[in-house]
Design a protein that fits this description.
By secondary structure, the chain is of the alpha+beta class. The chain has 4 helices and 12 strands. The strands form 4 sheets. It has a 6-stranded antiparallel β-sheet.
């Protein structure tokens, strides 16, 4: 799913069967589109559900291009997806449009790209490969000391030669998903920098 959130309906344009289906949810298409609506499989006896075609995106296929090109593309896609989730409320344990925690943001974004990552902190900090801070690219993960958690995962958004790098993360301090430059004090307390694989 590519929309930040959508609702599954009982028929094209009909009543809501399942509200608040969030970015990154994998929905199985079970038939042909009809007037901008697509039938999808639902759990239980209610079959099928219908979602707007504009809210869906195909699952990423394996990328056969050069690894460096695929890595950059996946990183930029991760940043775009994370930016769609800015201002979503912080919710400990959350992975929906109603609330997201810091590892949940990473999980939602990379799941949407077809890359499976651990859902929780200790396993997430071991995912992918270690990279030096100086070698970080957009989409890489930085683990910060923030809000009492010394290993809060953040997605590198951009870096320039003059400014401090900007990261996107779900903050219990601000109560929402934010994008902000790293502070000098945070740079000294980075626990790890990781690069996730570009394929599941």
């Amino acid at each position: 799913m590519s929309a930040t959130a959508t609702a599954v309906r009982d028929e094209p344009g009909g009543d809501v069967s399942m509200p608040g289906v969030t970015l990154g949810t994998r929905l199985r298409v079970v038939g042909e589109a009809y007037r901008g609506w697509v039938p999808v499989a639902l759990p239980g006896p209610r079959q099928p559900g219908w979602v707007p075609q504009r809210d869906l995106t195909p699952e990423p296929a394996a990328d056969l291009s050069a690894p460096s090109t695929a890595m950059v593309a996946a990183g930029l896609d991760a940043v775009k997806l994370a930016q769609q989730l800015l201002e979503i409320p912080y919710l400990h344990g959350g992975i929906s449009a109603y609330g997201i925690d810091a590892p949940g943001l990473v999980w939602i974004v990379y799941r949407q790209l077809g890359i499976d990552v651990p859902r929780f902190g200790e396993a997430l900090i071991e995912a992918g490969e270690a990279v030096a801070f100086e070698d970080l690219h957009p989409g890489d993960l930085v683990f910060l000391d923030h809000g009492g958690d010394p290993k809060t995962p953040a997605i590198m958004a951009e870096r320039s030669q003059s400014d401090l790098p900007e990261v996107i993360f779900s903050s219990p301090v601000y109560g929402k998903v934010v994008a902000e430059p790293l502070k000098d004090a945070e740079l000294a307390r980075i626990a790890a920098c990781r690069r996730l694989p570009v394929r599941a």
